[in-house]
Amino acid sequence: MKANRAQIERALDAPPADIRLFLLHGPDESGSQALAARLEKAMGGDAERIDLDAPTLKTDPARLADEAASISLFGGARWIRLTLSNDDALGAIEGLLEAEQAGNPVVALGGALKNTSKILKLALDHKAVMTFASYVPEGRDAEQLAIMVGREKGLRLPSDLARRIAELTGGDRTLMAIEIEKLSLFLDAAPDRPAEATHEAIDALAAEAAEEDIGALVNAVLGGDIPKLLRELRILAQLGTSEGSLLWALLRRAHLLASIRAEFDRSGDMDAAMASAGKAIFWKDKAAVQRQARLWAADGIARVIQRLAEAERLSRTSRNAGPVLVEHELLMIARQAARGR
User: Fold this and answer.
1) CB-based burial of residue 142 (10 Å sphere; 0-12 exposed, 13-18 middle, 19+ buried)?
2) pLDDT (tens digit per residue) in 225-242
3) Residue 35 lies in a domain
4) Distance between CA atoms of 2 and 107, rounded to whole angstroms?
5) Which of 68-72, 86-90, 206-210, 220-224 has the lowest mean pLDDT?
6) How far apart are CA 288 and CA 172, in angstroms?
7) Smallest Cα–Cα separation from 24: which of 44, 2, 6?
8) End position of a domain, from candidates 102, 118, 133
9) Are 314 and 325 in contact (CB under 8 A)?
10) What CATH number should be reported for the domain holding residue 122?
11) Per the domain annotation, does 75 fall within a domain?
12) Among the three residues 95, 111, 133, which one is the final residue of a domain in this structure?
């Protein structure tokens, strides 16, 4: 059955015994994830979470109903988070709804399901399923969302500033929360000591954070953290950071890793190799740099340097495809790093 926002929020905050499945879908995936987080909070920090996906359930449809009826190994609360990509999990969901008992709530994240989706049709017609579609907030809704998130962090956001944050993040709830969290930390705000946010504070934070944001992307690429890389690319695109700035920062780190790795291969002592770099390593990045130096062999980091240099050249000569070329190269390097983790 279809629910409105108030109904789905109440149900996720206190899951009813007669609802076996919450289907959260729609183009605003950040909104769906935020709703799923309400169920996670309601279940408690000690609850056992079982993560399943459509390919797994396609080969083992009975597992969903089994997990929903199982008792936690630790005797506490238990819930299931299901990620959907198509109708592959239809049989598993039918089994869940037909089972004699369930007990553990299931929340399914469906993304932008088509109206022809068999799972969506089943969910809308079944009384033991609650569905809700999230859409990217716009205009006044986006402003109100920014104000609400700010209030939770101890920030008082005037309407014009809330509108600026909403526009900066394209109404994406996750990016909005990240930006507001940064602003809250910058102003030392908290629910028990609220602060007034200003445009000047956002301007100062943007200038200060640009280098840090690039640093986070550098660590994501060379550390093989693909989800973080994708988030950082979106943030830096919103900030208008140039492809050249990203590539030069990555090249600096890659050359640093090449130097450290060469010293490590010579001496066999990573601490000594790190020390040989001296002040080239910022203290906040020391742990990340050491992990990356162990992750990348000398020949591998040499190839990375060649690829980054070529990407930098192409970004200057290709007027329209520059961002696409750069993103492709960064993903390829991150995937290589991920394989070595």
Assistant:
1) buried
2) 988 888 888 777 766 677
3) yes
4) 15
5) 206-210
6) 28
7) 2
8) 133
9) yes
10) 3.40.50.300
11) yes
12) 133
Q: Can you give the residue range of the structural domain that contains 47?
A: 5-133
d(CA 305, CA 141): 45
Instruction: Kindly state the DSSP code that residue 62 receives in the 8-state scheme.
Output: H
How far is the C-alpha of 83 from the C-alpha of 97, rounded, in Å?
17
pLDDT band per the 50, 70, 90 thresholds, residue 20: very high
Q: 186 exposed, middle or buried (CB, 10 Å; 0-12, 13-18, 19+)?
A: middle
Residue 173 pLDDT exceeds 80: no
Q: Which residue reads 């050359």 in tokens?
A: 255
Domain-embedded: residue 208: no
Is residue 156 classed as helix, strand or coil in its secondary structure? strand
Is a pLDDT exceeding 90 seen at residue 199? Answer: no
Same domain, 94 and 167: no
Q: In angstroms, how far apart are the furthest CA atoms of the chain?
A: 67
Contact assessment for residue 131 and residue 159, using Cβ atoms and an 8 Å cutoff: no
Residue 95: which of 60, 50, 130, 48 has the closest Cα?
60
C-alpha span between 314 and 189 (Å, rounded): 43
Please give the tally of structural domains in the chain.
3
CA distance 170 to 189: 24
Tokens 């005037």 — which residue?
158
Task: Give pLDDT tens digits for 120-130.
Answer: 999 999 999 99
Point out which residues pair with 35 in neighbouring strands: none
Q: Which residue has the tokens 């020949």?
A: 299
How many CB atoms sit inside 10 A of residue 156's CB?
A: 13
